[in-house]
């Protein structure tokens, strides 16, 4: 692991396994609380040494890291697809996005500016002038999930370094290799020693140490709601940015391009085997086109190829562990026992779970109200846009939503009334580019990611007022 600029081992290791066949892929250091404390202490020292790290050098390092990744992009893709759930095609897409994230970070480092302030708006301050500028918070602590093991790390490391911070990353224990490869890129890029650490090990052992350490001035967390609540409780008075998942809806109106809506919903529901915080989980379809929509969606879902992740022909791979597949199976069984109907899928084989469409599921079930984080989607007929929005807003999440319609009045009504952080018109909640503000309301998190918005969270404004004689 990369600890304060040095590659170090630990007394103990743990295994990283391919979820497809449970094959041992690598042994990784099992860090201790003392390792984490050392990484944070060294990060603080490195930040102080590099407190005046010039913007042009930050840009140079970020761009050099992108060049290194581009030269080794197939290695990065193979690693993502081997340690995680993504197919090789999806993994290659993630590598491309991670490089874009770092490119944007380099660009935003150049645009990190303040503003002049008109102090003479206040009577008696006619002889004052000044401005504010933004300065880095210091040490950022980052905890990242398994489902995007490279790009979601880049979304924390890129903005942190662009702002001039040091950062300590605790990657998901099941997918630590991609984060270590990202550290490789920054070492090759000439990043000052100690400005980045990637500490591998148990979240239970390391997470609390990371978020509670007084030198850590900002915590950036992506993961589940329960863990997010613990992070918020333990962090104390410091900046916190959290993305905590969702249960995203899609609304399909009768005036929409139905074929486009079906294709988008299939992709949005089953891409990355449904392990996606903005994946489609609930679809509300106007009753006039409900039967036709369902028929077409079942047909397209059945055409998806489930199999070997490393095959270019595969559309859907396994879940991250068999335990997760068993959990998904239990949720589906619960929905069926309470009246739900399986239209397709509903079968498990080890860590694989077939893409599944459910209908007639009661609103009170767990699968309607919580985040399934698996390849399962529920479909419901509705009689109006207003009903669809009311049902969409019913859950305690609000990350993103989608609506399909050719009517601008309907589109903007949805934009105004859907309770979420982003509305995608004629697309599903699954659409995102890495520059846009990304985050949600209610239990979906605090603050926004997206490079510029992360940088704002990772910096503080300082006001300068000058009194002239």
Automatic annotation (TrEMBL):
Aldehyde dehydrogenase domain span: 7-464
Pfam families, A to Z: Aldedh
Keywords tagged on the record: Oxidoreductase
InterPro entries: Ald_DH/histidinol_DH, Ald_DH_C, Ald_DH_N, Aldehyde_DH_dom, ALDH-related_metabolic_enz
Gene3D superfamilies linked: Aldehyde Dehydrogenase, Chain A, domain 1, Aldehyde Dehydrogenase, Chain A, domain 2
Membership in a protein family: Belongs to the aldehyde dehydrogenase family.
Stated name of the protein: Aldehyde dehydrogenase family protein
Taxonomic lineage: Bacteria, Bacillati, Bacillota, Bacilli, Bacillales
């Amino acid at each position: 692991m990369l600890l304060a600029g040095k590659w170090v081992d630990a007394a103990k290791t743990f295994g990283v396994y391919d979820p497809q066949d449970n094959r041992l892929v690598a042994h990784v250091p099992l860090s201790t609380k003392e390792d984490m404390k050392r990484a944070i202490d060294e990060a603080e020292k490195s930040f102080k040494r590099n407190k005046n790290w010039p913007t042009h050098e930050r840009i140079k390092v970020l761009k050099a890291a992108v060049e290194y990744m581009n030269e080794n992009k197939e290695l990065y893709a193979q690693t993502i697809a081997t340690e995680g759930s993504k197919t090789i095609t999806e993994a290659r897409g993630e590598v491309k996005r991670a490089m874009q994230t770092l490119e944007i970070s380099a660009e935003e480092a150049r645009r990190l500016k303040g503003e002049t302030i008109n102090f003479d708006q206040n009577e008696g301050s006619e002889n004052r002038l000044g401005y504010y500028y933004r300065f880095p918070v210091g040490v950022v602590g980052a905890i990242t999930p398994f489902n995007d093991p490279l790009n979601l790390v880049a979304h924390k490391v890129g903005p942190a370094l662009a702002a001039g911070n040091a950062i300590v990353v605790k990657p998901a224990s099941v997918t630590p290799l991609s984060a270590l490869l990202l550290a490789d890129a920054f070492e090759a890029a000439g990043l000052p020693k100690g400005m980045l650490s990637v500490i591998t090990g148990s979240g239970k052992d390391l997470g609390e140490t990371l978020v509670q350490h007084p030198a850590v001035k900002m915590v950036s967390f992506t993961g589940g709601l329960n863990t997010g609540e613990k992070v918020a409780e333990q962090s104390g008075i410091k900046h916190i940015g959290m993305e905590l998942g969702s249960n995203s809806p899609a609304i399909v109106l009768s005036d929409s391009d139905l074929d486009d809506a079906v294709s988008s919903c299939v992709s949005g529901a089953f891409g990355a085997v449904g392990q996606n915080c903005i994946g489609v989980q609930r679809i509300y379809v106007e009753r006039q086109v409900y039967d036709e929509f369902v028929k077409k969606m079942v047909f397209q879902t059945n055409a998806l190829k489930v199999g070997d992740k490393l095959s270019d022909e595969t559309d859907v791979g396994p879940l991250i562990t068999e335990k997760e597949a068993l959990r998904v199976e239990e949720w589906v069984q619960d929905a069926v026992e309470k009246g739900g109907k399986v239209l397709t899928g509903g079968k498990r084989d080890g860590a694989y779970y077939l893409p599944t469409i459910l209908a007639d599921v009661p609103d009170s079930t767990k699968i309607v109200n919580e985040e399934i984080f698996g390849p399962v989607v529920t479909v419901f007929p509705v009689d109006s846009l207003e009903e669809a929005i009311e049902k969409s807003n019913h859950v305690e999440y609000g990350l993103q939503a989608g609506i399909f319609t050719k009517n601008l009045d309907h589109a903007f009504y949805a934009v105004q009334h859907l309770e979420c952080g982003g509305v995608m018109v004629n697309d599903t909640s699954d659409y995102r580019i890495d520059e846009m503000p990304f985050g949600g309301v209610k239990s979906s998190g605090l603050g926004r990611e997206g490079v510029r918005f992360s940088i704002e969270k990772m910096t503080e404004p300082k006001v300068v007022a000058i009194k002239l004689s």
